[in-house]
Task: inverse folding
């Protein structure tokens, strides 16, 4: 049996300090956690773990340079630690250090092409979870590289269609799409604001006499918008928003309130991504709202980075 009074070695004392720092971080005591990680690093400066965790702490505080410094040291001490390379790739991307980001992604096992400037390495489409002032929203985005994504849907607020955001590496939760669980990645920061603002308008349509055979009228509005580099979408109702459990973990079986949602084509709130009110007016005119028997409400700007 191990003697509990045996003095800890240098690595053991560093681990104890690092574990304590993690507890402090979990309790929201940032300054104390940083000081304790630094104590672990001083006890055993050859151990990569406290450097890595300090880099994570700074990353989630959006302190990019401090995160890069700590994470870079972690990769130097343990070049085989893939998690450190991933974290380095993210913070290097946040700082626009493209040469360092390329090196990090290659060490993480990706075969990136040679080049300078922003990385072009498409990673498909994924839901991105945006942290808003009042609620959490998930929107689809086209991933430009492992750490950047361009929003391909119109958010509810604080972000715009076409924004390029910094996304985390590990999934924060999952969404069910066509009976498959799809990973969702957290947005860490806005990197490139979109020139398109978010506009909203209420449109009332007469009940169609028969079901459209190809695309409904609002789908056609979206098609016309995309042809112009804009976007138009039906604004989802709160009854169709995921619950807190689904938003923060794995989806489970329930109807998210659909059973009580009133189904109606009129009125419908439409979100439009456009630069100016004039672009919205031209889009609606070419969609031929009057010819469709539509009643169009006032056009209101919901959000803009300008």
Result:
């Amino acid at each position: 049996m191990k003697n509990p009074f045996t003095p800890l070695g240098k690595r053991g004392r560093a681990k104890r300090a690092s574990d304590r720092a993690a507890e402090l971080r979990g309790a929201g005591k940032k300054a104390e956690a940083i000081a304790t990680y630094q104590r672990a690093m001083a006890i055993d400066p050859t151990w990569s773990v406290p450097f890595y965790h300090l880099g994570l702490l700074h990353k989630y505080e959006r302190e990019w340079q401090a995160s890069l410094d700590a994470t870079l040291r972690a990769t130097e001490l343990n070049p085989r630690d893939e998690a450190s390379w991933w974290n380095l790739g993210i913070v290097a991307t946040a700082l626009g250090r493209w040469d360092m980001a390329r090196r990090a992604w290659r060490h993480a096992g990706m075969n990136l092409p040679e080049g300078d400037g922003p990385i072009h390495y498409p990673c498909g489409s994924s839901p991105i979870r945006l942290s808003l002032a009042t609620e959490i929203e998930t929107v689809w985005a086209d991933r430009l590289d492992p750490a950047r994504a361009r929003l391909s849907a119109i958010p509810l607020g604080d972000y715009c269609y076409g924004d390029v955001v910094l996304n985390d590496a590990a999934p924060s939760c999952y969404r069910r799409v066509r009976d498959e669980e799809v990973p969702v990645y957290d947005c860490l920061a806005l990197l490139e604001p979109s020139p398109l603002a978010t506009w909203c308008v209420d449109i009332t349509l007469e009940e169609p006499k028969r079901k459209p055979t190809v695309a409904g009228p609002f789908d056609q509005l979206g098609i016309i918008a995309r042809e112009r580099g804009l976007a138009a979408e039906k604004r989802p109702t709160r009854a169709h928003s995921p619950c807190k459990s689904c938003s923060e973990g794995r989806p489970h079986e329930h109807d998210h309130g659909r059973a009580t949602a009133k189904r109606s084509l009129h009125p419908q709130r439409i979100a439009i991504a456009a630069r100016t009110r004039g672009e919205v007016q031209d889009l609606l005119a070419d969609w031929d709202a009057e010819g469709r028997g539509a009643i169009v409400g006032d056009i209101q700007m919901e959000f803009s980075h300008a």
